[in-house]
Amino acid sequence: MRRILLAGAAVLATATAGTAEVKLGSLGGVTGPIAEIVALLMEGRELAARHVNEQGGLFADGQQLTLVVGDSACDPKAAVDAATKLVNVDQVVAIVGPNCSGATLAAAQSVTIPAGVVILSESATSPAITALDDKDLVFRAAPSDAYQGIALANYILGQGVKTVALTNANDDYNAGLAAEFAKAFEAAGGKIAAHQVHEPNKANYRAEVATLGGAKADALVVFAYYGSSGIAIIRNALETGAYSKFFGADGMVNDELVNQLGVDALKDAAFTTPGADDSTGAFKAYMELAKDLKQPLGPYVPNAYDATFLLALAIEKAGSADRSKIAAALREVATPPGEVILPGEWAKAKALIAEGKDINYEGATGSLDFDAAGDVPGTYTLNTVTPDGKFAAKLLK
């Protein structure tokens, strides 16, 4: 409950009393299995909104961009309820989020697509989202897991690990990622010695680990959210001696993993997350602006900034809070041709739009050139645990 109140306070802070406002939905798993990660994402969204408001706001009369928070709880039903309120009661012009793939699919199919409302998620990466009949209303500021599965498979094989056991939580995100990983790993010559789908939020996973351990693979690949099953599975694998080498993806990258399992237990663990090329001007601009955030490079935090800033640019380009104009405007501000806009350059972008000139936002995470399905290309980072108990990230080439 405390986290919800804090998020609400941040929302109120984005609008000045008595000033006209434009409401943008900020939908995410404020509670649920990745609440700690989402709290960091919300900071990224709020930072982007603050840059808009501090540099003149929206339109000629300087309307404030107000983020209206909805809690999807990383759960399909909760996401539908929260999206319904944002769309029908709060009357938001568009929505940034949700965070989790299952929540995004549910909210899009049941609420936002029928209502004609654009959603732009910074972290919903299931390949199933690409196939939605979405009327060009569903976009992502992070690449599909069709690519992350390949990146992780290539990294593991490059480490000399040829045989793995695989387990994934029974949800849209983790199931989709597991399928893409398994396909890429086997196509490149690797072997999946055992594969188990597990249900989240069980007291323990000793039975599943016993089966996976019986495969005698070189490592265990875990696709899960750290707070619902990931930590428990690795703990049980360590306790039974089934495995000591672990791989996974962004759902596992959180300090709580280290806090509960310890540094020694994770010395042979590595997890991929969508990342950014730290040599670009856009990345450097973001890092300077985000230096006061708790974790400016936390999983999907730069993506959250980009998604919020992009939607604000689309609203400005549309010239009004007309929902029907946002999708086309979003594509226009995110892709060439046009003068490049970097993170934080709201006043510059606003002036160019007012002059009728094209702009092209280059984000902290790279180019956000949406394809026909609303997907973007991307890069990935490898996250490992350092001796001092922190996650260190390096770009995967």
List keywords for this structure.
single chain; 397 residues; alpha/beta; Rossmann fold; seven-stranded mixed β-sheet; five-stranded parallel β-sheet; disordered N terminus
Please give the structural blueprint.
Layout: H1 2-13, E1 21-28, H2 35-54, E2 64-71, H3 76-89, E3 95-96, H4 101-115, E4 119-121, E5 138-140, H5 145-158, E6 163-169, H6 172-187, E7 191-198, H7 206-213, E8 219-223, H8 226-240, E9 246-248, H9 255-261, E10 269-275, H10 281-289, H11 301-318, H12 326-334, E11 339-341, H13 346-354, E12 359-363, E13 366-367, E14 379-385, E15 391-396
Parallel strand pairs: 1-2, 1-3, 3-4, 4-5, 6-7, 6-8, 8-9, 9-10, 11-12
Antiparallel strand pairs: 10-14, 12-13, 14-15
Helix pairs in contact: 2-11, 3-4, 5-6, 7-8, 8-9, 11-12, 11-13
Describe the structure.
By secondary structure, the protein is α/β, with parallel strands linked by helices. The chain is 42% helix and 19% strand. α13 links the parallel β11 and β12. α2 runs parallel beside α11, α8 runs parallel beside α9 and α11 runs parallel beside α13. The two termini are 41 Å apart. The N terminus is likely disordered.
The CATH architecture of the largest domain comes to 3-Layer(aba) Sandwich
Q: Cα distance, first to last residue?
A: 41 Å
Biggest beta sheet attributes: 7 strands, mixed
Task: Provide the β-strand percentage band.
Answer: 15-25%
User: What global shape is seen?
Assistant: globular
Number of structurally distinct domains: 2
Mean pLDDT: 93
Extract low-pLDDT stretches.
1-18
User: Per CATH, what is the topology of the largest domain?
Assistant: Rossmann fold
Can you write the helix and strand succession as a string?
A: HEHEHEHEEHEHEHEHEHEHHHEHEEEE
